[in-house]
């Protein structure tokens, strides 16, 4: 049963805080395991990678078999249906269109003194995509990470994903990667995949940045690898918050809460509302709909442990609670959602209106579904084109331009006690 919390009840603050701040990566035992994996692969390369693949995925491969062949890709197409291909193509088109709108152009500004200032945008040279796998299929993860990388014109996009016990990759994942235009695909997952991309092996290339979701070991590996490579973010369990008033439809709200709860036993599903009637009706709907799910056990545990209905006195108080949570996915199921939008400060993706179901963002709408979790939407953004480009500043001064500011530059350098800095400017006028 989902817990019901009255936000105005005396002494409830501790319970509310527990619900709103649940995520943590402070797991020293797992961190030590991951550090050992990274150290081993940094020293022993493919030999260590293959050992971990055999241990964790029960797949026995040789070094060359890690790279997916063209024959394997062609075989994958025979295992998927036309309906899937059609859905995939629509999703790719929408994701591409959305991310193309984020592209920025290099610029320069020249003033009357001949001073040129600007910024140059260049794509990263090599990016690694991590896609969960094994027996599961996550083609949407391929699209959300691969399409923006290709739109940004990253020179080489490589993908890693764990193989099945038979040493094969999921056909839906393979077809998605081929459709996106991924350059190379490797059968390796877990922390060992992150290590291989971070340090490089004889077979798997070192990349400049790693993007994509994974389990706690993958996330901790990305945390430890940061500095050797860049990463997108440290993603925790999935979460959805539904901000609703009396106009929300209980059946819809319950279905949306469960759509996240079925992801993971640690997924968070929260309803914040000022309608007691809606809160009661959603509780009943959750019980009904849970029984119909193939992943009932997972969803039920998530609802029990990390779900909550938070009852407030007003829509304004509901918005305040919503901003404190800073949800990965936020649904605004109120009578006038666009009037509420201006008051929303913290959220990864915002779904406005009663028919904007959260799974649309996961699959088909176009905005990226790689989103900040655990409250990090207070300061972090969804995966976007900027994650796949680097920016260089352009600075060019004429003698006249430098002469106008030389004394101020020298003064600031002298205040900091950096005589050579000051002299670097001064010598240009000693003639």
From TrEMBL:
Q: Which InterPro entries match?
A: Ald_DH/histidinol_DH, Histidinol_DH_CS, Histidinol_DH_monofunct, Hstdl_DH
Supply the Gene3D superfamilies for this chain: 1.20.5.1300, Nitrogenase molybdenum iron protein domain
Name the EC number(s). Answer: 1.1.1.23
* Reaction equation(s) it catalyzes: L-histidinol + 2 NAD(+) + H2O = L-histidine + 2 NADH + 3 H(+)
Q: Name one GO biological process term.
A: L-histidine biosynthetic process
Domain of life the protein comes from: Bacteria
Broad class of enzyme this protein falls into: oxidoreductase
Coiled coil regions in record: 276-303
Keywords from the named record: Amino-acid biosynthesis, Coiled coil, Histidine biosynthesis, Metal-binding, NAD, Oxidoreductase, Zinc
- Family annotation (CDD domains): Histidinol_dh
Cellular component annotations (GO), alphabetically ordered: cytosol
Single GO molecular function: NAD binding
For this chain's record, the cofactor binding note is: Binds 1 zinc ion per subunit.
Q: Which residues form the active site?
A: 328 (proton acceptor), 329 (proton acceptor)
Look up the record and name the pathway of this protein: Amino-acid biosynthesis; L-histidine biosynthesis; L-histidine from 5-phospho-alpha-D-ribose 1-diphosphate: step 9/9
Where does the sequence pass through the membrane? none
Q: Which residues bind Zn(2+)?
A: 260, 263, 362, 421
Report the protein's function. Answer: Catalyzes the sequential NAD-dependent oxidations of L-histidinol to L-histidinaldehyde and then to L-histidine.
Q: Which family does it belong to?
A: Belongs to the histidinol dehydrogenase family.
Q: What is this protein called?
A: Histidinol dehydrogenase
Organism the protein comes from:
Selenihalanaerobacter shriftii
């Amino acid at each position: 049963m989902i817990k019901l919390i009255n936000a105005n009840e005396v002494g409830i603050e501790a319970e509310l805080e527990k619900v709103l701040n649940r995520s943590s990566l402070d797991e020293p035992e797992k961190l030590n395991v991951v550090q050992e994996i990274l150290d081993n692969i940094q020293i022993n390369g493919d030999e260590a990678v293959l050992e971990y693949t055999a241990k964790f995925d029960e797949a026995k491969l040789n070094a060359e078999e890690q790279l997916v062949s063209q024959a394997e890709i062609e075989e994958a197409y025979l295992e998927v249906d036309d309906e899937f291909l059609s859905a995939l193509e629509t999703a790719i088109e929408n994701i591409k269109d959305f991310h193309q709108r984020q592209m920025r152009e290099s610029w320069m500004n020249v003033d009357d003194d001949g001073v040129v200032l600007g910024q140059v945008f260049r794509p990263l040279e090599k990016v690694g995509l991590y896609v969960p796998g094994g027996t599961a299929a996550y083609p949407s993860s391929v699209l959300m990470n691969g399409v923006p990388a290709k739109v940004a014109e990253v020179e080489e996009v490589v993908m890693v994903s764990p193989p099945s016990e038979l040493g094969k990759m999921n056909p839906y994942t393979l077809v998605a990667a081929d459709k996106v235009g991924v350059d190379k695909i490797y059968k390796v997952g877990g922390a060992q995949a992150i290590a291989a991309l971070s340090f490089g092996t004889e077979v798997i290339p070192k990349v400049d940045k790693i993007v994509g979701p994974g389990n706690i070991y993958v996330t901790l590996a990305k945390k430890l690898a940061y500095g050797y490579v860049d990463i997108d973010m440290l993603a925790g369990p999935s979460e959805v918050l539904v901000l609703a008033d009396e106009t929300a439809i209980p059946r819809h709200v319950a279905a949306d809460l469960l759509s996240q709860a079925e992801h993971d036993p640690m997924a968070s599903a929260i309803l914040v509302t000022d309608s007691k009637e809606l809160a009661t009706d959603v509780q009943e709907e959750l019980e009904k709909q849970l029984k119909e799910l193939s992943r009932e056990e997972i969803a039920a545990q998530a609802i029990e442990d990390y779900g909550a209905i938070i009852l407030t006195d007003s829509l304004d108080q509901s918005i305040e609670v919503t901003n404190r949570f800073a949800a990965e996915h936020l649904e605004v199921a109120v009578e006038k959602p666009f009037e509420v939008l201006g008051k929303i400060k913290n959220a990864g993706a915002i779904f406005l209106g009663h028919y904007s179901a959260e799974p649309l963002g996961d699959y088909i709408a176009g905005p990226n579904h790689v989103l900040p979790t655990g409250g990090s939407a207070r300061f972090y953004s969804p995966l976007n084109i900027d994650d796949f480009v680097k920016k260089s500043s352009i600075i060019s001064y004429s003698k006249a331009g430098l002469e106008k500011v030389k004394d101020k530059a020298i003064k600031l350098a002298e205040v900091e006690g950096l005589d050579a800095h000051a002299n670097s400017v001064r010598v240009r006028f000693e003639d």
